Amino acid sequence: MKRRRGGRREPSRSLPGTSRPSIYSAKTLKPFLWADVPAKWSNTDGSRRVAGEAAEFGICSGFAVPMLSVHHWQSVLSFASSAKSCALSPRQQVQLVTMAVYAGMSIQALSSDDSGEDGLLTDREKEVLLWAAAGKTSSETSQILGVAERTVKWHSNKAREAFGVSTTTQAVVEAVRRRLIHP
Length: 183
Fold this sequence. Notes:
- The structure is a single chain.
- The protein is of the alpha+beta class and about 180 residues long.
- It has two domains: about 1-90, 2-Layer Sandwich (Beta-Lactamase); about 125-175, Arc Repressor Mutant, subunit A (Orthogonal Bundle).
- Helices cover about 50% and strands about 10% of the residues.
- The chain has eight helices and five strands.
- The chain has helices at about 20-25, 40, 45-55, 90-110, 125-135, 140-145, 150-165, 170-175; strands at about 1-5, 10, 30-35, 60-70, 75-80.
- The strands form two sheets. Strands 3-4-5 form a three-stranded antiparallel sheet. It has a two-stranded antiparallel sheet with strand order 1-2.
- Helix 6 packs across helix 7 (about 150-165) and helix 7 (about 150-165) packs across helix 8 (about 170-175).
- Mean pLDDT is about 80; it is low at about 1-15.
């Protein structure tokens, strides 16, 4: 691994035995189909070797969800398929992302102390997360609650900080997992 500006690590293109989804997930935080990995990340000897070994076990395609926590750990959850081409609808992709975020948050929770959750979130932060869970934007939530959109974003940010996550979706998943909200 070599260092890149901002302290984030960048994989070397010559890492032996590294799959193309693994290499590409270090470059993006957007979920992607394995087939969509740019050629410069998939045409390495190591990537071809891993792909060949995976094919021996019937793994031909998949969908990957890179994740980055505010505690600076980076991971990727891949959903593998035996199909030659992994064809997922946008809805199916969202469902897999939700599952990946839930799994990532569960793993993070296993490695952290969950004591003292009673005062973890304010009532307003819980309310903002409930509306986010219902699919409302910050603007829509501000109209529903009768507050400024900036206030909604502030409470959302405070909830993310409380859980040590980087997205509101992750905060919603964590609040549900800890039974702090019930959408």
